[in-house]
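[SOLVED] Predicted holo structure with zinc ion

Edit: marking solved, answer below. Original request kept for reference. I posted the sequence and ligand SMILES and asked for the 3D complex as structure tokens.
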Amino acid sequence: MLQDIERYLACPHCAQALTRHDRSLRCPAGHSFDLAKQGYVSLLAGDAHTGTGDTAEMVAARADFLAAGHYRPIAEALAEAAAAAVAGASDGLVADLGAGTGHYLAHVLDALPGTVGAALDISKFALRRAAKAHPRIGAVVCDAWRPLPLRDASAELMLNVFAPRNGPEIRRVLRPGGTLLLVSPTARHLRELVGALGLLSVDEEKQRRIDEKLGPYLEPAGRREVEFTLRLGPQDVRTVVGMGPSAWHTDPERLAAALAELPEPVEVTASVTVAAYRR
Ligand SMILES: [Zn+2]
């Protein structure tokens, strides 16, 4: 619930602490944020835009796909890495930057019984689900490219799964010694679909570029690759194309035609790196 994480939240305008007044959160400077009926709060600065958030339909399709367990090995690897990263620390905040429906954060919180989780995302449709994904999740609408609405050194652990990375803000929010766990696709991710459907492929240098971008802020602290085979029907393929790193760059009719050519079900490689970085 939101109450679980309120003490970690910061005003997006002035970075001061927020406290609850009835159905809103307020800072000492008088900035006020109404709590949504669906259990989340929007801490967007006034001039932020929400146009890049996912639609309700996209969110529903992704939630169904994840609930079906197709990406369970990724969630399990993440939970294992989280338990190893915070060994000894029984409480604290886990902040998921680009949390979507809260699927991965919920797995991690199950592995870390004393912690609470902040699901951060730009999509209110995703966060309506995240708010219900686990009893210890608080869901917050924010822009990953702005100062995050979390206090300095507030997080024991941060997660970033197929999502935007804001190195300076991740460093600011992590406590000294805290860990970022980052899941990104390898060049083999969805490779069977890349050719068949004309997707953008993940380039071989992606991991190196991530390391370079985070280098000024965090130190690499171990990584592993997780690779497994997906068996997908046509709707699953449509969903995985939409949710993955490979944006679809052809019109819907061409996609439908290309999908019709695929075997049913189609076997597809899922391949990601789970990398740890320490502040
Ligand atoms: Zn304020």
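OP edit: The chain has a mean pLDDT of 90. Thanks to everyone who chimed in.
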